[in-house]
Amino acid sequence: MYSDVERLVLDYGEKMTITGETVDDILFTKLREHFSEAQIVELTAGIAMENFRSKFNAPLKIQAQGFCPLPAR
Asked: What is the tens place of the pLDDT at every residue in 19-48?
């Protein structure tokens, strides 16, 4: 379903997000094969911002705005 580059970016995001995970040199080298330094910085900032929002919104009980509705359970 995802391209190799998309899976690489998802892996990067997970390594940045999950406590105890780290971005190792191998993963960073793979990113550099597909992205410039500026693109990696922008990607990192985007992931970090989403992590910030998840930590900021939850304790304040800020609900999703419905831009990406989840299926009913």
From this structure: 899 999 999 999 999 999 999 999 999 999
Residues 17 and 47 sit within 8 Å (Cβ to Cβ): yes
Give residue 70's pLDDT: 67
What residue spans define the domains of the chain? 4-57
Spatial distance between the Cα atoms of 43 and 5, rounded to a whole number of angstroms: 13
Distance separating alpha carbons of residues 1 and 60, to the nearest angstrom: 35
Whole-number Å distance between alpha carbons of 12 and 61: 28
Cα distances (Å, whole numbers) of residue 41 to 38, 64, 68 = 5, 27, 26
